[in-house]
């Protein structure tokens, strides 16, 4: 699952990875959740967009629906990972000289698209 970029950051040092994470999908098991968390770490995914699974009334997995507590805990674990990964990324950037791209008067962006 890891890409060459994730394995060797020297190939493209300014690259950061992001992913949408659905927390509490009805058929998800605890092992699947742990595996996903491991992939987040192994692939060095920095930007996580986390949202809970939202079941429609006639959804085919309605009978497998997870409890609200499961959704909440799953979301919390993903969000904690998101904060930890972002903090680690930002800490690595301290003291580095960066090029700033000014797109608009009030929007400054670093060369790796990190907003200032």
Structural class: alpha+beta
- The second-level CATH architecture is 2-Layer Sandwich
**How is the biggest beta sheet arranged?**
2 strands, parallel
- Radius of gyration over alpha carbons? 18 Å
Q: Order of strands side by side in the largest beta sheet?
A: 1-2
What does this protein look like?
This protein is elongated. The protein has helices spanning 4-7, 30-42, 68-93, and strands at 17-23, 45-52, 100-104, 107-110. The strands form 2 sheets. It has a two-stranded parallel ribbon. The mean pLDDT is 76. 37% of the residues lie in helices and 21% in strands. The protein is of the alpha+beta class. It has one domain: Transcription Regulator spoIIAA (2-Layer Sandwich). The longest helix is centred in the C-terminal third of the chain and has 26 residues, at 68-93. Helix 2 links the parallel strand 1 and strand 2 (45-52).
Give me some keywords for this one.
alpha+beta; Transcription Regulator spoIIAA; two-stranded antiparallel ribbon; 116 residues; 37% helix
